[in-house]
Write a structure and sequence with these properties.
The chain has about 700 residues and is mainly α. Helices cover about 65% and strands about 5% of the residues. The chain has 31 helices and six strands. The protein has helices at about 15-45, 55-70, 90, 95-105, 115-125, 130-140, 145-155, 160, 170-190, 195-215, 220-240, 250-265, 265-270, 275-295, 305-320, 330-345, 355-360, 370-380, 380-395, 400-420, 425-445, 450-470, 485-495, 510-515, 530-545, 545-555, 580, 590-600, 625-640, 645-660, 665-675, and strands spanning about 75-80, 85-90, 500-505, 560-565, 605-610, 615-620. The strands form two sheets. A four-stranded mixed beta sheet has the order 3-4-6-5, with helices on both faces. A hairpin with a 3-residue loop joins strand 5 and strand 6 (about 615-620). Helix 7 (about 145-155) packs antiparallel against helix 21 and helix 11 (about 220-240) packs parallel to helix 14 (about 275-295). It is elongated.
Length: about 700
């Protein structure tokens, strides 16, 4: 098979067949990836008898798609989330996929539930990244073998499949194909055999796709950061000899990022333009401007000394850090978590006092550290093969192709380190590892001989290992710690009390809002300091406070019902429990959590109305309820003094329905019962 592009005219019969075969190959890779994901999610659904609702952030994402589907847009503020203040949606979370999914969902039959449509659309959209990854390698290396292996690994590898089956709706599954498209069209723009206008169009499309990915998933900033650091290092290296590389295409991409940061509400709210990534770009622009000015004036190139260049490069970031008001809260909590992982050698300490609250609550499975066992589960063949390929490629850096290869190796190495520290970053590692394996296939095919066949055998075997690993036990690749049946029972019960505000932990609150349609007090995504502070206050009141204090804290948010999740004192994995997060591993038996778990009948302000194996629902007596109950009790007392036992009993009963702990109402009912037993007749105040 030749790796060079065909030179025949597209209109000829022989010229059409290679294009048809190429398109058919891309479609086949797409379908393979799609079928693998549908197989996994169908097995997951069958385990739950077809009842597979979205949970956690996925439930919130589905709710927003549903809002757009029903109304055509999202409200400016969502008053039911983070009740009672609500949240400004476009400043609290990334927005974009909702409109695309809602529009595509209209193409499905009307009788099909919206959740099922989204469950089809989610993997279908994600799998567009498979042919785009193949096109990236093809436009870069002009190797069909490289394109096939790169796309093939990304189609079947567990690290790519596990979070993209449609079991949950996530921003990353929408943004990653856009990121891969950015890389593909960037490679097309580098093709010097094409016309200049065509290359500029490809570069513009590449920048647009990067911006679209950035505004739809916040963690695309990780890629932008890697790209900016690589460009800065290369710029410093070339600036030392007086020819810094800051080309127009870099300016186009940086300009697109700047416009997005200025116009997008989420990026504005999180201070993207004043963040370290953009400040590094400002530093490069500053250094380039100084170079131009010194050359025009004939001044000595004082700036060309490495320490001076580095200082100039970091000057905008230092200015932002020193001047108050420029840098807003962005991802400081991620920085705190990374610092803790480095400090404790990537091992979560058993003593929670050694971490602060943000570090404790974020160091959970999605952002947990990768150990050897988990790494071998997620990357059984891809990691060993890509490590070998990366090691062999480290010596290839003297050509333009080698420069692009160095950048890919840099992205791969940083993604691997990020994965070791934060498991969730395996989504980036899967992209760059697949690309490296594709490049290794292109390299082997270029040289031919034994290298070609040995590489082909290894890559085919690795792809087979990854694919069999996924389809052999698909039941392992879903959410294993979600109580779907218990959640369904809870939601069906809560539908009878909507739209009363509900307090629940962040693991179940999104489902209560989306499916139970009750306002929720706790936001399940820790995107701002205000959200994290409210969750911290909740946990400390639950494990460190007393019942009345917990009631008073919840009462300020208008809570009517509290959903308690059983198992807060389980000896299994205490480091993943709220008592660890609030540094109270051994709470008092007088704390609210203990009473909700073991002594619900002794609670004064919370009355248990319903429960199942996992959840208990309590009706909370707020201070307004106490006032209303006292009013009924006073009326009952007056009726009792007048001898109107019926009215006294009715009002005392009403008082106890509002506040079962009202002592006056209890006394009146007891007194009415005694009088009735002694033969006093009921008198109706209406007939007196």
């Amino acid at each position: 098979m030749s790796d060079s592009p065909t030179t025949q005219q597209p209109g000829t019969k022989k010229g059409r067949w290679p294009v048809v075969r190429w398109v058919a190959g891309l479609v086949l890779l797409y379908l393979v990836g799609l079928l693998v994901r549908y197989h996994v999610v169908n097995v997951q659904a069958a385990r739950q008898d077809g009842n597979l609702p979205f949970t956690l952030e996925g439930a919130l994402n589905f709710r927003r798609i549903e809002q757009v589907f029903m109304t055509g847009t999202l409200p400016v503020r969502d008053p039911q989330l983070e009740y009672p203040e609500g949240v400004v949606i476009r400043e609290t979370d990334t927005v974009g996929e909702e409109y695309v999914y809602a529009a595509l969902a209209r193409l499905f039959p009307r009788r099909m539930p919206l959740a099922d449509r989204i469950r089809w659309l989610e993997p279908a959209w994600f799998c567009m990244g498979i042919p785009l990854l193949s096109l990236w390698i093809w436009w870069w290396r002009r190797s069909r073998a490289g394109a096939i292996f790169a796309g093939g690994f990304y189609a079947v590898a567990l690290s790519s499949v596990i979070r993209s089956t449609g079991q949950e709706v996530s921003h990353e599954n929408f943004a990653l194909p856009l990121l891969i498209g950015h890389l593909a069209f960037e490679a097309l723009a580098d093709d010097e055999t094409r016309r200049s206008l065509f290359r500029w169009l490809a570069a513009g499309l590449s920048a647009l796709l990067l911006v679209c990915a950035l505004v739809t998933w916040d963690l695309i900033q990780f890629y932008v950061g890697m790209w900016m650091v690589y460009c800065a290092a290369r710029f410093l290296r070339t600036a030392r000899v007086g020819t810094p590389e800051l080309d127009a295409r870099w300016g186009l991409q940086f300009g697109a990022l700047f416009v997005a940061g200025a116009l997008n509400p989420y990026l504005r709210a999180h201070g993207f333009l004043a963040g370290p990534v953009m400040c590094l770009g400002y530093g490069m622009l500053l250094l380039a401007w100084i170079r131009r000015m010194t050359q025009r004036g004939g001044c000595a190139q004082w700036w060309s000394r490495p320490p001076v260049m580095l200082l100039l490069m970091l000057l905008p970031a230092l200015a932002v850090m020193m001047l108050p008001g420029l840098a807003r809260e962005s991802y400081g909590h991620f920085g705190e978590l990374l610092y803790a992982k480095i400090r404790f050698l990537n091992m979560k300490p058993a003593d929670p006092s050694r971490l602060n609250f943000s570090q404790r609550i974020m160091w959970v499975p999605a952002l947990d550290s990768a150990n050897v066992a988990l790494t071998m589960v997620l990357l059984p063949a891809m990691l060993p093969l890509s490590l070998v390929a990366a090691f062999l490629f480290l010596r290839r850096s003297h050509t333009q192709s080698g420069s692009k290869l160095k950048r890919l190796l840099f992205f791969y190495a940083i993604s691997l380190v990020a994965f070791v520290l934060l498991v969730r970053f395996h989504v980036f590692l899967a992209v760059f590892a697949s690309a490296i394996l594709g490049v290794s296939a292109a390299w082997a095919w270029e040289r031919g001989g034994w290298r070609k066949w040995v590489t082909a055998a290894l890559l085919v075997a690795g792809m087979a290992v990854e694919g069999i690993h996924v389809v052999r036990q698909p039941e392992r690749w879903g959410r294993t710690l979600v109580y779907y049946r218990e959640i369904d029972e809870l939601i069906r019960w809560l539908k009878g009390v909507r739209p009363e505000p509900v307090l629940a932990n962040f693991g179940i609150s999104a489902s209560i809002l989306t499916y139970g349609q009750c306002p929720i007090v706790l936001h399940p995504k820790f995107e701002s300091q205000e959200i994290r502070t409210r969750v911290q206050d909740y946990g400390e009141q639950l494990f460190k406070g007393r019942e009345e204090g917990f009631r008073d804290w919840a009462d300020q948010y208008g809570v009517k019902y509290y959903v308690y999740a059983m198992g807060e004192f389980s000896p299994v994995a205490p480091q993943q429990q709220m008592r660890y997060f609030v540094n109270e591993l051994d709470p008092s038996t007088n704390c609210p959590a203990w009473m909700f778990e073991y002594q619900p009948e002794s609670l004064k302000y919370f009355r248990c109305l319903w429960g199942n194996r996992k959840y208990r629902v309590f009706r909370m007596t707020g201070r307004e309820d106490e006032v209303r109950a006292r009013q009924y009790a006073r009326v009952a007392a007056e009726a009792l003094e007048q001898g109107d036992l019926q009215r006294a009993e009715d009002n005392a009963t009403s008082a106890l329905l509002i506040n079962p702990a009202d002592a006056e109402a209890q006394r009146i009912l007891k007194h009415v019962g005694v009088l009735s037993e002694q033969g006093f007749e009921y008198r109706s105040h209406e007939t007196e």
